[in-house]
Specification:
The chain has 735 residues and is of the alpha/beta class. The chain has 20 helices and 26 strands. The strands form seven sheets. Strands 2-3-4-5-6-9 form a six-stranded parallel beta sheet. A six-stranded mixed beta sheet has the order 11-16-15-14-12-13, sandwiched between helices. It has a five-stranded mixed beta sheet with strand order 18-26-25-20-21. The chain binds beta-D-glucopyranose.
Amino acid sequence: MRLLRIFLFLLPSFASFPAHSTPSPTPPPARAVEADIEAKVSALIARMTLAEKIGQLNFPSLAFPYESQLEAVKQGRIGNMLNVVNPGHLRSFEAAARGSRLKIPLLFAIDAVHAFRVTFPVPIAWAATWRPDLAELAAEMVARETAQDGINLTFAPMIDVSRDPRWGRVIEGAGEDPFLASAFAAARVRGYRKGGLATAAKHFVGYGAPEGGRDYNGAQISIAELFDRYIPPFEAAIGAGTETVMASFNTVNGVPVTANRWLLTDVLRERLGFGGIVMSDFFAVPELMNHGVAADLGQASRKALHAGIDLDMAGEAYRRHLGTEVAAGRVSMDEIDAAVRRVLTVKYRMGLFEDTPGGARKIPSAVTDARVRAAARAVARESFVLVKNSGATLPITPQSGTVALIGAAATSISDHSWYGPARLEKPKTETLEQALRRRIGATQTLLFAAGFADACGHAFKDKAEAIATARAADLVVLILSEDCAVSGEGASRTDLGLSGVQEEMLDALAETGKPIALVVETGRPLALTSAHEKVAALMIAWHPGTEGRTALAEVLAGEIAPSGKLPMTFPRSVGQVPISYSDLPTSRPATADRYTTGYVDEKPTPLYPFGHGLSYTTFSYSGLEISAPRMTRDGAIEVRVEVENTGPRAGQEVAQLYTRQLVAERSRPLRELKGFQKIALAPGQRKTVRFTLKASELAYHDDAGRPVVEPGRFRVFVGSSSTAELAGSFEIVAD
Ligand code: BGC
């Protein structure tokens, strides 16, 4: 087999609906500016004491009382801080840095992910819009709110690919697919940066594949998979200009990433060309002792620095030990200087110094709540995924008759923000009940029963009242909400069913025989098989944020048609996990026969496949054409398809393109997403959707991690989900 080395940085060629075209990323600093920065950094390093150098690698979290930290900043022993949010505190620390000998500005970082004041839907919901431009807008707005008082770095975006919904942090990412995740990684980096924050692409790498779905657990990932699946979003984030990368907590193939020189230096820096700061995760340097790769904190600091960790986040290992390590000759001054150089270079590139070549940092103007809320609403509207809708149960129309809204979540004003600075006063949220009443209250009867004692259905309040309310109605709209505490960091689950007594409530309501439209707020895919069977309609609303319940009412009432698609497979049961549409073929493709791949007690297929999502209208795909039957390994073809709105109302559809290489040197996935476009169509309208497919995008990696574009036949599928049936073929030929 002839291998063709291809250019390593492969940006995904997603295209979005032209009306929402994405601006190009901030261009990298011009060469002359970079040269000036280099000279300034060299001059600065030449003036620094070892203690001041170590200070630049020190990255503690604000601790009360903070006077000693202020003093340490003045002495140049703290160069960066996290969790300083209060404007008064920010000013005090800025002043302390200005009062230090070398006046080096601080990095001020927080987890501004989907919220500062206004809460946007959670990031997995951003991906469910399949509109990277909306994610870019969301990130920009969060950043603009955050950047006003001096915070200059966000610990975002989280771009870990994951096929395991047991892992609670899937809420922070873009799901299971490297192509989709790369598009969203780049968009989020662009957005936060546009809004005035530097970014931390995290967590490099493989954090989304912990064994058993257990947070912080080790991942076993083959080299080929590492490059095919987990690294591409980081390449995209680097291409979009991320200033920093955060290393992940876990081991990859037995070596903790924080001490993994191959991953952090050979791969991230040398191969991917990342020239910014690499930081540890929170306390991850001391935790090298828990991993059993360092006997003491000194060894931990030495291993982390040597692996390529520039900033020791909250670990105090560098501050306490690097001086001694240098004195003992175990760490060289060159190694320290190289890390300090990267930190100072990024600070210059961010414009934090007054004398930054090319100009000091300009903070984007403040945004009004109204503008941020409008953006949050826009994201929420397109993030809901209608996974079932038999008999056009939704939207609610006058013909739906009396509606019973059931569920304490319908009166909840919790915006489910997590990681946002909790102490800030949050803008008010409309409840689903209020929002729905405003829409349908005048034309039809809307009954309400909370049913549960709390929004997340941990206990009943009055089950009998809920049942009676359902009986008095023609349609039940039941809202169930997964507790935010069961998603996110440190929130792995072994059970993916509805939590608390929510399933019991659903059973009781189903017994009334009334049609049920179920809305589920969740931060991860759940196994909703039994719920699916009991309801007429089912909508995944994720955790939709400050504007979310209003947007939900707009969609339920039919003002807006749902247009979200699943960025992650919904399994039938937890035993199917990890599960993905892009599995490799097996020796025995699944059939009814026992001795084929699958389970004796469950179907092999998921409940809802990746890419699935319905609208209130229908779309048909036809006329697939491929511009040429073959292309060379540096070539490209165009795939065209006609999409028609065949239903009664306007809607948006995400046309998705998947490929499969039929025969190759290694088994290739059954399908791989290689293009998507969200388009708006009026009833009866038809559009030609065009995808450009480059041979280089069909590369895979071999066991040594080398990219290969292997000649051979490919099938291409276009349609509304990963089960699309409209297909064609083409070939990649050797020159
Ligand atoms: C998380 C990071 C986060 C950091 C700082 C860690 O526990 O893994 O994603 O940025 O804390 O809050």
